[in-house]
């Protein structure tokens, strides 16, 4: 059995604190932006937590993590990506001293992972800015956020050095372009936010991210610190050069984030965009030097590809992750309208490798679907999610192709390895996991865990280091 995956390939799964932990006001935790987004990005935020916000309880991972980590270990996980809820550590975000009970929870969680030989991969800020920082400072628009983030990461690095080897600074940092409140904690309504304010906020995040790399290397020399971007390859809709140029511009708007993280300076192509939109980034003394602290690896999410056209008449919008684009006539879509393109993952891996020559880590990929819990012939409750197996198999085959192409891939963590509350729509119905959690959109359910068919499939994939994947010779 041959396999292109290296022996030390990091197989695992990924989650975010705000989508599964629950316990939103337990042990001193403060409110985050998620606690006022009961329906994700689909409706306006509320004044405070409301009963219809499924994330307040999530899947009760805060109290059940031992049971869940044991299931991850049974699948053979080498790595588990989760995030730290910033407002568990600094409930308001601008305090001087951290909340010990919050730190202790993550100490216990990481110890549980290590008990099974699972390496934690930790996202420092995953769409969970403390609500106080959003309301009081307007989130990352305010430069003071760099100071608060620096204090936060310094506490994390000192506390968890030796326990956490892999760190990500911000989740899908480029998503701030589309969702400034969820991604950047920016309280100003999107329609009122100027491009100047938005790109200044992005600059503050990029400086903070580079500062985290600098501090991480000083405090934990053995650790690896990466960035995390939302990848969405953009194809020209036709070979018309107008479409090719439109696709180039769309890709550049996204590429700036990884470019700065990997190279340590702003790329020249963005100057034209800044000039056209009267954007003048204010650099403070030392910013340019801090940005030179580049990441050790590039991590990214991959769900869909999109098309772009220079012809306004042909702009038929498809639904994407957070970035909508023009639909590709050659691709099928998921129940939620996300177009399925396994080869796009190979294209993305090759592009990033050619561009940066830094190790790559696929930290989100998966299929959201409305699963049906059934009872099998042995009386066990399960889900026959062959559609998910097909999706993941086809994407992982393309990861293998990219490795054969010469791309250095560190690992793969499928998104929502256990069912959790969706980020974009804040519903339970849209499930990604190998493990079914009995909780429904109306909040009902036992919270019991059941292994889906894909649980056993993924266990075999990991156990064979990818040799069990079925290629269709694309």
Give an overview of the whole structure:
The strands form 5 sheets. The protein has an 8-stranded parallel beta barrel, surrounded by 5 helices. Strands 6-8 form a two-stranded parallel ribbon. The model has no long low-confidence stretch (mean pLDDT 95). The longest helix is centred in the middle third of the chain and has 25 residues, at 195-219. By secondary structure, the chain is of the alpha/beta class. It contains 14 helices and 16 strands. Helices cover 37% and strands 14% of the residues. It is globular.
Distance between the termini: 20 Å
Order of helices and strands: EHHEHHEHHEHHEEHHHEEEEHEEEHEEEH
- Going by CATH, the architecture would be Alpha-Beta Barrel
CATH H-tier superfamily: Glycosidases
Largest sheet: 8 strands, parallel, barrel
Radius of gyration: 21 Å
Query: Would you tell me which CATH topology applies?
Result: TIM Barrel
Q: Helical residue percent? A: 25-40%
Overall residue-averaged pLDDT value = 95
Query: Which CATH first-tier class would you pick?
Result: Alpha Beta
Sum up the overall morphology in one term: globular
Percent of residues in beta strands?
Answer: 5-15%
Number of structurally distinct domains: 1
Structural class: alpha/beta
